[in-house]
Design a protein that fits this description.
It is a single chain. This protein is elongated. The protein has a seven-stranded mixed beta sheet, with helices on both faces. α7 crosses α8. The chain has 324 residues and is of the alpha/beta class. The protein binds adenosine-5'-diphosphate and 1,6-di-O-phosphono-beta-D-fructofuranose. The site of 1,6-di-O-phosphono-beta-D-fructofuranose has 12 residues, from loops. InterPro entries: ATP_PFK (IPR022953), ATP_PFK_prok-type (IPR012003), PFKA_ATP_prok (IPR012828), Phosphofructokinase_CS (IPR015912), Phosphofructokinase_dom (IPR000023), PKF_sf (IPR035966).
């Protein structure tokens, strides 16, 4: 193998740049030519592909976002789009691919590999942590810490004004951010997509808590089955029927996706990036390089996207016990 390509795709996540740096530098160290594909699968289809050098990734290890940019590509979901992508890669003589992204990116990579056979290894780049085959995904730790910093600030107002705050964190289909923010932020309740939210029982517990507490923080993952934080707040307010209480909603949104990656995310990103290139050289394909129990492991894309990664049940119990 002499030439490989790398791209970032799906939602950006803090640490993608550190991962990209590791891919480029490892490839050059191993005497490969490395090409960057801009805007994920969109750039692959448009032929937006440029050679990368050591200096191309200078001074990015600490930066959020992705210098290669990212996109969600509808065209890549069509056979015609993927054919164009293949032709552009073939033009550059690309023999291996590193795909940095989430489960959607790996779904696309798996289909592309099955159609065109270019060996591909993924790196788990998403704040949601919803990928089987790695304990954590690149960006998760930063997102949680960013959300926690915001929750800490909101707590000041919640406590000073005796308010009940509903704080919405990211996680379209996954509650990992919600759960870790709930534990770290001392939330009274956490609502996540993985578990059925029973608002009657929340209201009952909230009434009991009112005997000992004057304010509350409730963390809602955006994909919760009971609705958005706004919707849940209105329902709880009506059910609780306590005019002495003020209810507020804060949606943290994209601040969770930006910013300088934490040390944990930089190290994870660097390890996965190097492992992806070394994996390609060792003949790995159609799989992701992740870190489980401190070790680099390669997991077939099929399992990364197909197998469930459950939230740790102890964590939910922890929130319940510590909220009294
Ligand atoms: N079933 C699919 N077939 C082909 N490409 C796909 C498929 N699912 C996702 N992709 C590609 O992967 C991109 C990134 O996926 P997305 O779900 O948006 O983000 P993430 O990788 O962060 O989960 C999509 O925009 C699309 O181009
Ligand atoms: O920025 P967008 O495109 O609105 O996407 C928002 C989604 O992206 C995420 O931040 C990350 O999801 P992906 O990694 O699957 O892209 C979700 O938590 C959130 O729902």
């Amino acid at each position: 193998m002499k030439k490989i390509a790398v791209f970032t795709s799906g939602g950006d996540s803090p640490g993608m740049n550190a991962c990209l740096r590791a891919v480029v530098r490892t490839a050059i160290f191993r005497e490969l030519e490395v090409y960057g594909v801009y805007r994920g699968y969109e750039g692959m289809i448009d032929g937006d592909i440029k050679r990368m050098y050591t200096h191309s990734v200078s001074n990015i290890v600490q930066r959020g976002g992705t210098i290669l940019k990212s996109a969600r590509s509808k065209e890549f979901m069509t056979p015609a789009g993927r054919k164009k992508a293949y032709e552009n890669l073939a033009k550059h003589g690309i023999e291996g691919i590193v795909a940095i992204g989430g489960d959607g990116t790996f779904t696309g990579a798996k289909i592309f590999f099955e159609e065109y056979g270019i060996p591909t290894v993924g790196c788990p780049g998403t704040i949601d942590n919803d990928i089987y085959g790695t304990d954590y995904t690149i960006g998760f730790d930063t997102a949680v810490n960013t959300a926690l910093a915001a929750i800490d600030k909101i707590r000041d107002t919640a406590a000073s004004h005796d308010r009940i705050f509903f704080i919405e964190v990211m996680g379209r289909d996954a509650g990992f951010i919600g759960v870790e923010c709930g534990i770290g932020g001392g939330a009274e309740f956490v609502m996540v997509p993985e578990t059925k939210t029973d608002l009657d029982s929340v209201v009952k517990d909230l009434k009991n808590l009112r005997k000992t507490k004057t304010s509350s923080v409730i963390v809602v993952a955006e994909g919760d089955d009971a609705g958005s934080a706004d919707v849940i707040m209105e329902k709880v307010k009506t059910k609780l029927n306590d005019n002495t209480k003020e209810f507020k909603v804060t949606t943290l949104g994209h601040i969770q996706r930006g910013g300088n990656p934490t040390a944990r995310d930089r190290v994870l990103a660097s390890r996965c990036g190097m492992a992806a290139v070394d994996g390609l050289l060792a003949g790995k394909q159609n799989c992701m390089a992740g870190v489980t129990n401190q070790e680099v492991v390669y997991t077939p894309f099929q399992d990364c996207i197909g197998k469930e990664k459950p939230i740790i049940p102890d964590h939910l119990e922890l929130i319940k016990v510590l909220s009294i």
